[in-house]
Hints:
This protein is an alpha+beta fold. It has two domains: about 5-50 and about 155-205, FAD/NAD(P)-binding domain (3-Layer(bba) Sandwich); about 65-155 and about 230-370, D-Amino Acid Oxidase, subunit A, domain 2 (D-Amino Acid Oxidase, Chain A, domain 2, 2-Layer Sandwich). About 25% of the residues lie in helices and about 25% in strands. It has helices spanning about 15-25, 65-80, 100-110, 120-125, 155-165, 210-220, 245-250, 330-345, and strands spanning about 5-10, 30-35, 55, 85, 90-95, 115-120, 145, 150-155, 170-175, 175-180, 190-195, 200, 205, 235-245, 255-260, 285, 295-300, 305-310, 315, 355-365. Strands 6-7-5-15-16-17-14-20 form an eight-stranded mixed beta sheet, sandwiched between helices. α1 runs parallel beside α5.
Amino acid sequence: MSDKQSSYLIIGGGVFGASTAYHLSRAHPGASIILLDRTSSFPNPVAASHDYNKICRADYSNLFYCRLALEALEAWYKDSLFKPFFHRTGMAVIDFVGHGPKIIENYKTLGAHPSAMTVSPNELRKRYDKLFEDAIYEGSKGIFINPLSGWADATLAVRKVTETAISNGVQYISGDVETLTFDANGDCSGVKTKDGRVLEAGKIILSTGAGTARLLANSAPDRKELQSGDRITAAGVVTGCFLLNQVERERFKNIPVLVHESSDVRGVFSQFSLQIFITNGVSGEVIPATSDGFLKICVDYSFKNTSLHAQSGQIISAPPDDSDQGQHNVPQSLQDECRRAAKGIFGKELPDRDFHSFRICWYERPLKNG
């Protein structure tokens, strides 16, 4: 291949960008690979992957996605690069929508995870020393359990992958992208940064997460074929963390990842500025405590932050323009949703504990699915 054909520019150094850089560096050791992100440190503090932890599972009702996730889990289990960051705590889902049997059927089809099962609420209570004694179970279709799922130290894992990619020859560059650039044929040739630099490569890979729709609109507002449309939009979720004391850490040390999968959600934000949730259900996730005692609750439904993009005429959802994307400016209504999710999962287990911190995490998702 020519030098230009074997050159790659990856925009965004979060989990997708870092992973892409790492795997390209292994598959094409002679290629020129640039990983570009806004900050000199990695991962970027505003990235969704800059977090205490993330769930690692293949427990999906979609067969195709389940198959892909099983491949990823194999690396978390066995690969020396990923294994140190993975915690196989198991996962339990209080299932209100009937996903459990579909997941088990997928595993049978794929010949994987034979220990996945559906149990009763009483069995969940017994397994985990009554920690979920007061969780909301009414209307559930059973409890899905997979002892092979778990979670990973998110920031530490992404940082290690990035460092390994750099040691493999990837060039990490800090720079805030203003627009994509295009050649005479209208093909994307690179990027222009806000400080005036132009970076080019044979292949341009966008790993820009929640900023993708706005970047495309800013770069080529008149080219409808390049807009993200309903394929991808920015969505936010709110998380809250308890900082457990030593007694509480001992009490919670053996809990699984737990998902309360209520379907009784009547509405979500249509705009971030509304600062209102309308819901009768509890839909949330708990990820077990980190080594320093942070127990995370995620309210498991999302909202958008929409505005008119004047140049392209589109209504686009994007993170706030603040330097930290407003992630620590969490409205009281969202804080209350974290408290309600915690109560719906733990009941009276943490009656007097308030949250240590809250965060709004911005990520990308298909628009047509919610």
